[in-house]
């Protein structure tokens, strides 16, 4: 972080260099969360298909929550004596990740892609927790609280992607497009022969029972 954006003071109890290093770590997380809230809003506008309204409305509270996290981090950076960078140009110049790749897509495709987005954000937030442990416990507590909320929402999303045997339908995908492709393939795959036979047997049994009831 450029020193021209840093004051000649920080919070009591921290050295100037520690305050600046802590603010530098937070700036990286600020960029990540700013990107996340924009990505979530983009997905909110672009989900289609079955389950649309549930996912569309589920995303908005998380967007507001992440926007609140952004504000908390920016104000903590300022409290530490450093000017927080919140412009689009600063975000694009600093980020090490690509733009979210999905446009209009089904609810499951977006949720599978967003699950990967959350993997990255949570992993890097946890790394920041480790990095601030010996720097500033107050900042570390802020990050810990944010991770708990981010992980909770990732669980909400994963509940749509979890199979009855406890497997994520998008597991193993390395990119957002690949994750979306896996759940799309699952949706398009025909039911196994055994499953179709059981369904047919169930229909026959229902029809047979209906005939018996009419005779009575």
From TrEMBL:
Any one GO molecular function term: ferric iron binding
Ranges annotated as biased composition (Low complexity): 172-181
Superkingdom field: Bacteria
Region (Disordered): 172-216
Domain Ferritin/DPS: 24-163
UniProt xrefs under PANTHER family: DNA PROTECTION DURING STARVATION PROTEIN, GENERAL STRESS PROTEIN 20U
Alphabetized Pfam families for the sequence: Ferritin
SUPFAM superfamilies linked: Ferritin-like (SSF47240)
Gene3D superfamilies registered for this protein in UniProt: 1.20.1260.10
Similarity-based family: Belongs to the Dps family.
Protein name: DNA starvation/stationary phase protection protein
């Amino acid at each position: 972080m450029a020193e021209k954006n840093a004051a000649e003071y920080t919070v009591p109890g921290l050295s100037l260099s520690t305050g600046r290093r802590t603010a530098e770590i937070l700036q990286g997380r600020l960029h990540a969360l700013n990107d996340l809230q924009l990505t979530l809003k983009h997905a909110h506008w672009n989900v289609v298909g079955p389950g649309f309204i549930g996912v569309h409305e589920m995303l908005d509270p998380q967007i507001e929550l992440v926007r609140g996290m952004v504000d908390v981090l920016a104000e903590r950076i300022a409290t530490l004596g450093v000017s927080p960078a919140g412009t689009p140009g600063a975000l694009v110049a600093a980020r090490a990740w690509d733009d979210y790749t999905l446009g209009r897509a089904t609810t499951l495709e977006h949720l599978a892609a967003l699950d990967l987005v959350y993997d990255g954000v949570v992993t890097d937030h946890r790394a920041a927790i480790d990095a601030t442990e010996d720097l500033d416990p107050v900042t570390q507590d802020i990050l810990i609280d944010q991770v708990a909320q981010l992980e909770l929402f990732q669980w909400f999303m994963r509940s749509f992607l979890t199979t009855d045997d406890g497997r994520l339908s998008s597991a193993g995908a390395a990119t957002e497009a690949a994750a979306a492709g896996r759940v799309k393939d699952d949706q398009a795959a025909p039911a196994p022969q055994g499953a179709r036979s059981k369904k047919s047997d169930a229909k026959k049994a229902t029809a047979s029972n209906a005939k018996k009831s009419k005779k009575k």
